[in-house]
Fold this sequence. Notes:
Blueprint (H helix, E strand, L loop, with lengths): L2 H9 L9 H17 L8 E2 L14 E7 L2 E10 L2 E11 L7 E2 H12 L8 E6 L2 E4 L5 E5 L6 E2 L6 H11 L6 E5 L1 H12 L5 E9 L3 E7 L14 E4 L12 H9 L7 H6 L1 H17 L5 H8 L7 H7 L11 H33 L6 E7 L1 H5 L3 H16 L4 E5 L4 H12 L2
Parallel strand pairs: 2-6, 5-9, 6-10, 11-14, 14-15
Antiparallel strand pairs: 1-13, 2-3, 3-4, 7-8, 11-12, 12-13
Helix pairs in contact: 2-11, 3-4, 5-14, 8-9, 8-11, 10-11, 11-13
Amino acid sequence: MTERVREFLIQYGMLDPDFDILKCAEAMCLEMQKGLRGEKSSYPMIPTYLKTTGNIPENEYVAVIDAGGTNFRSALAHFENGRCVEERVKKAGMPGIGKPATWEEFIFFVADSIEDLMPLTDRIGFCFSYSADITPEIDGRVNCIDKEVTITGCEGQLVGKSLCDELARRGYTGKRCVILNDTAAVQLGGMAKHLMDGYDTCFGQVSGTGTNTCCTVPGEQITKLGDSAYDMIVNLECGMYDGLPQGRFDRELDLSSHNPGQKLFEKMTAGVYLGELCRRSLCQAAEDGLLSAPCAEKVRALPHIDSVAPDAWACGERLDELNATEEDGVIISEIAGFYFKRSAALMCANLIAMAELTGAGKSGKAAVYAEGSLVQRNHIYRPELLALLNRNLRKTLQRDEYLVVEENTTLPGAAAAALLNLH
């Protein structure tokens, strides 16, 4: 990074020259422990009640559902030779897009999607990627449904019970359902895909539009559950962590968001925000005279942008959209690349904290199963995260942890959740 860009980022508090990944991880780990004890913490450490132990039975069918964002999928799944096989896959848009739908209409839609599978299985794995509190029965009590989807009357409803009641009304009694979110599905789906790879510990990571992680935590550490605790996946909701100093553009973005003061870690790391952080930084660079006058004029005219254009700029591509001089291009590229690198450094600290919390990697290989647009498609984020994990885990802490980038793990994860937890 050139000195001019470095000084600019330091001036506005975006780059902390004294940032230490291991010290950051230590603070995060302490906050995670508070969350497990039920103390006030910005790491909620939400129990999922999902067990990960045992063997996934083969050739046993389960209905699987993935409802998240604006898309809906369902299928019939089973495992064969350690591989998840999906049949009768259906894809559709979520109810509640364009015009509101009621909770009853949503459940009717879900039941319709799997009704033809009910003669073949009594187990359902449902990846429900909206805000819900998981109950000890592994059902989900809805807090809200968002992401451009409007479902009225959803608050407080039990997802699995509502679906099983509707199926029973149609004559399919005795059906059982587990509810999990997308991050837990990534962890379980990765586990199911890599049964033979020898990992003794694994984490789930979503780095895309949003940010989250999860891991299996020993029951004795989940003291807020008392005697009912056992080894289970815990959803960290790490996007809510608020222990990091914010720079000026972080604060401006937060104040302009629909939830000021919330999800501060996510706003510093998730793809949906990185383009806007880059845009605000470039506008300030234009005001400060770092960019030439013709370039500054183009920068000021930039609309709200996602992370796709900054990814290209960081790689030295599409710079002619903005720059007027070679120096303009260098500054734009370095500012854009900085945000992806900072996101990777903060995620690395979070993963190290999880390794410390669980003891991962001390006695064998640990895997991070990761999914999402940043880790799958961004050209800067993934190699930076890999390099930081290698430098800080393998060399400094003598741990082995591997980043395994996945695709389409939600349905296999939902299948594994049902097969391991519904006997």
